[in-house]
Design a protein that fits this description.
single chain; alpha/beta; four-stranded antiparallel β-sheet; 16 helices; 12 strands; about 45% helix; about 15% strand; binds uracil
Length: about 425
Amino acid sequence: MNCCDLINKTKRKKKLTENEIQWLVNEYTNENIPDYQISAWLMAVCLNSLSDDETLALTLAMRNSGDILDLSNINGITVDKHSTGGVGDKTSLIIGPVAAACGVYVPKMSGRGLGHTGGTIDKLESINGYRTELSLNEFINIVNKTGFSIVSQSGKLCPADKKLYALRNASGTVDSIPLICASIMSKKLAVSADCILLDVKYGSGAFMKTYDDAKKLADIMTRIGNMAGKKCSAMVTDMNIPLGRNIGNALEVAEAVEILKGRCNGKLYDLCLDLSAKMLELAGKGDFTSCKQMASDAITSGKAAGILEKTIELHGGDARIVNDTSLLPQPRYSHNVYAEKSGIIQKMDSEEIGMTSLIIGAGRKNKADSIDMSAGIIIEKECGEHVQKGDLLLTLYSSSITDFSEANRRALNSITIE
Ligand code: URA
């Protein structure tokens, strides 16, 4: 096969065969095709898209480029969940224990945060001692014991995606729905849970800026998951404003604990119930309404909080945080952000709030940067609320900076009061 022929086919909107796509992925992963040729093909995909069959072939070729987990030793039906990421998204820490409390198994691999978005692994590492890197056997043993575990994604999963994603970042070819779909779904299929729930976010803090694009991505990911033999479903959810009140690693763990203890309601709680119910429905536990009731009962009974506690302990972490969140890393400095005028809060821009949290140490600009686990933001007023000039809008926390002037400016910039 010849790479130029395949580039030309996609350029002329002709379909590639499964063999041709497999060949492209394998030869590129084995370094037999140079970056510039694959960049040209990726650009042709961005411009002309791929059919579902081609996207499935690309997804499976990428999945098959590395390890595929064998979860057959887990004692029941497994459900994975993926969020396309955002600001303040701590749902995995909540819905994993909730779904497990309702009798499904949740073996989850997660990533780290980059830029304005957070990552579940960073949040978990804010718990003293919590080990995110476990052998497959340790991972499966914990899932069998508590129903739930989150570890960091194994470096051996989908090496083709690692290479292709880096190249897409460098060649302006990230924003293609079939390429995003293949990248996400190859990793999900390599984890190989029986069912997959996708939480596709749209809005300012999300990868997909509009509802329509998020819906398109959700639809194709669901189709590809189903074509690959998985029970797969998606929800399209709002990321125009941050999720919940707390942003930042330890702060988000604390908020997740509060939700699991039944002490918070609001949008985050509602979304967690919906996501948990969807996971349970996928796993055949009943219809959406009865699954939602089961999820709510798992919180009020304390069973879900108990599962989080046991899981943290089995990961070597300080499980006392579930009963005393002051044992999480505490910030040395704080700074209040006050309203500069009176009016109604019309907008809280997720991306700007995410960038503010980055400035105060809660996130990383580059993959190798370290994180201040205690840093973050507590949102004191909600979108739609009336505020007076001088009212407290946000509190910023950090142990790594004392000069909050730039963060204060960005924080104010994120909030529109009219
Ligand atoms: N997340 C991924 O893992 N891949 C993409 O292409 C986009 C977001």
